[in-house]
Write a structure and sequence with these properties.
single chain; 7-stranded mixed sheet
């Protein structure tokens, strides 16, 4: 069982930056692929970024590639999402998720545990 708690969301102007954190409970955190998803009002939840258990392999949605960076600190059981050059279309609730047994995962149904989400609002 893994519990995930996101933090770091807020209101930022377009072009600004935010860093999201996701703290995980459970001793086996380092064995999970971790991902970030987001959901805007009236839209489906979409993949943003994922990192393998080691952090060596990362994968990004085309819409955030070059602007967002996912990283993890297994010793602190935390995964991060550094978001730069934010745009109004990045406004959404951002969710952290954990996937067991997959080297990388980009689909919502590939993830086993989810956080409660943190709101990111980018003003233009």
């Amino acid at each position: 069982q893994v519990q995930l708690v996101e933090s770091g969301g807020g209101l930022v102007q377009a072009g600004g930056s935010l860093r999201l954190s996701c703290a995980a409970s459970g001793r086996t955190f380092s064995s999970y692929t971790m991902g970030w998803f987001r959901q805007a009002p009236g839209k489906e939840r979409e993949f943003v970024a994922a990192t393998s258990w080691s952090g060596v392999t990362t994968y990004y949605a085309n819409s955030v590639k070059g602007r967002f960076t996912i990283s993890r600190d297994n010793a602190k059981r935390t995964v991060f999402l550094q978001m730069n050059s934010l745009k109004s279309e990045d406004t959404a609730v951002y969710y952290c998720a954990a996937s067991a047994g997959r080297p990388i995962a980009t689909m919502t149904n590939e993830y086993d545990y989810w956080g409660q989400g943190t709101q990111v609002t980018v003003s233009s």
